[in-house]
Specification:
It is built from no helices and 5 strands. By secondary structure, the chain is mainly beta.
Length: about 70
């Protein structure tokens, strides 16, 4: 499970080729889909351009853990 502040990269299981290989920060844990737990957790990410998008756990690879304050 990722935590806010973690740096992740979108891996090649993402169905949107535009995002594959892009790094982003985990901003929030959005929870699980109550009807389908097969995708795991959902995370809100912030990309370098300041835009936010939501991805599943399976579409992300950890680059660096965030520091705890």
């Amino acid at each position: 499970m990722y935590t806010p502040g973690d740096l992740v990269v979108v891996n090649d299981t993402c169905p949107l080729p535009y995002f594959i290989g892009k790094a982003a920060l985990v901003i929030a844990i959005m929870g699980m889909d109550s009807t389908d737990h097969s995708h795991g957790w959902y995370y809100r990410l912030e990309f370098h351009d300041g835009k936010y998008h939501i991805f599943t756990h399976k579409e992300l690879t950890l680059l660096s853990k965030g520091r705890k304050q």
